[in-house]
Structures are given as structure tokens and as C-alpha cells.
Write a structure and sequence with these properties.
By secondary structure, the chain is mainly alpha-helical. It has 2 domains: 51 residues, no CATH class; 28 residues, no CATH class. Strands 1-2 form a two-stranded antiparallel ribbon. Helix 1 packs antiparallel against helix 2. The longest helix has 30 residues.
Length: 108
């Protein structure tokens, strides 16, 4: 048994819709599940149609995106740790929980 195809997914969605229509359960839960299934079925059909159209038009149907996208282009503000102390040796500020100065290595 290989990977399921888009057609098999669409058939599965249709069978889930038919099963949901035949069972009697909480109306709110049933309506919400029906909406999910119908939306997924519509997306699967739209994807299939768009894919076919692109293939017939000799357009590459899939475009490889970068795996990581920046959430913002702006620089992030530097935040100071809440509990900072000054090093007795070099006067650098560091996190109180650290226990040593990251600049000169002096123990607290």
C-alpha cells in the first residue's frame, strides 16, 4: 500500500461526510465537523483544478520556497535581563542567576 492520492483523499472526505449525515449526535459538533469536511473537500478540489490548469499551461505547478522566513525585517530591541548585577572585577552587567561574569570570568 503506497501513499494515498488526492483522489483517495477526496473519496475519504466524501465518505466521512456521508457517515456524518447518517449518524445522530450533538448538532453543534456535527455542524462544526461537517463544515471542516466540506471545507477540506473544496480545498482538495480547488487544488486539483489549479494543478491541472498549471500543468496544461506548461507552468511549473510547485515553487520551492525557502524553509525559513523572517517574521519581521526590523531589528529586535535588546532587552536587559530583569535581575542584573555588576561584576566586581570589570563592572560589566550580567544576569544574577549566571553566577559568573561572562566578560572576564570572575565568580560572584
Amino acid at each position: 500500500m503506497g501513499q494515498p492520492s488526492l483522489e483517495e483523499f477526496r473519496r475519504w472526505l466524501q465518505s466521512e461526510i456521508a457517515a456524518l449525515e447518517s449518524e445522530e449526535s450533538n448538532a453543534f459538533v456535527q455542524d462544526e465537523r461537517m463544515l471542516q469536511l466540506e471545507t477540506a473537500l473544496q480545498e482538495a478540489m480547488a487544488f486539483s483544478a489549479a494543478w491541472t490548469l498549471r500543468v496544461e499551461s506548461s507552468v511549473n505547478p510547485s515553487v520551492r520556497e525557502k524553509s525559513v522566513r523572517l517574521l519581521s525585517d526590523g531589528t529586535q530591541p535588546q532587552t536587559q535581563p530583569i535581575n542584573t548585577v555588576k561584576c566586581n572585577s570589570c563592572d560589566a552587567e550580567f544576569d544574577d542567576e549566571l553566577g559568573f561574569c561572562p566578560v572576564c570570568g570572575e565568580n560572584r
